[in-house]
Amino acid sequence: MGCERRRSLALGSVLLFALVVCACGEGSSPSSPSVERVSGVWMAHATLTAVSGGACVGSALQASIGNRDIFAAQIQQSNSSLSGTVSSQGNQTSCSYTGSASGPSVTLNLSACQAARVTAFRCADGSRYDLQLVGDRITAQATSAGPGTSTSTWNVMAAGTTTPVATLTLSSEFRWNQLGIPHNDFHVFDGSVLPGYVDGIVVIPEEVNPFCEKCGWF
């Protein structure tokens, strides 16, 4: 066999191998990380862990570190995008959130509030201030008893006014559980929904220590 023929056969083998590799790779793409289905209602038990800023309000709230609150998160999911409402039992806030899910991780950011004002908070010197919730970021694991954190920002204003005189930052940690009911069949959380509540086939199960004697940070 001549050199030219051997070179032709070798070149043909290389081209054939390349075509096979290309054909096998067609239509394949890197797999995306799976996204947990988090649509539904989640009930969380939160604990205040840190307070910063806020002038005399922040100083007064140092004594509230360790206090508990309970909130319900009503989440709707479209692929990895999330939206919903988070309502607090003790702090008595109710706000809309948007965010995303990545694997088992959930991130929610406050977008607007229906109820977000604490009025006439009293400092040690007797002065009174109103607080307005203006921002909150929630991160959590969408698993049973999944841990999570919340970092919220509040404007501090002299009582009855609207001009901020200080900014308060509150941090909390929580664990939450999915109640197993659809997001569109949940009653607004106002403290009237008790454990064992039944609505047709929907049941809110009993929880360990579901309510706190004094809920909230304020």
Written account of the structure:
It is built from two helices and eleven strands, in the order H-E-H-E-E-E-E-E-E-E-E-E-E. With 218 residues, the protein is mainly β. The protein has one domain (40-203). The strands form two sheets. Strands 1-2-3-4-5-7-8-9 form an eight-stranded antiparallel barrel. The protein has a two-stranded antiparallel ribbon with strand order 10-11. A hairpin with a 2-residue loop joins strand 2 and strand 3 (81-88).
Largest sheet: 8 strands, antiparallel, barrel
Residue-averaged pLDDT, rounded? 80
Provide the spatial order of strands within the biggest beta sheet. Answer: 1-2-3-4-5-7-8-9
How many distinct beta strands? 11
As a whole number of angstroms, the C-alpha radius of gyration is 27 Å
Poorly predicted regions are 3-33, 185-198
SSE diagram, text form:
Blueprint lengths: L2 H23 L14 E14 L1 H7 L6 E11 L2 E8 L5 E9 L2 E11 L1 E6 L5 E14 L4 E13 L5 E15 L19 E2 L2 E2 L15
Antiparallel strand pairs: 1-2, 1-9, 2-3, 3-4, 4-5, 5-7, 6-7, 7-8, 8-9, 10-11
Notable traits:
218 residues, mainly beta, eight-stranded antiparallel β-barrel, two-stranded antiparallel sheet, elongated, disordered N terminus
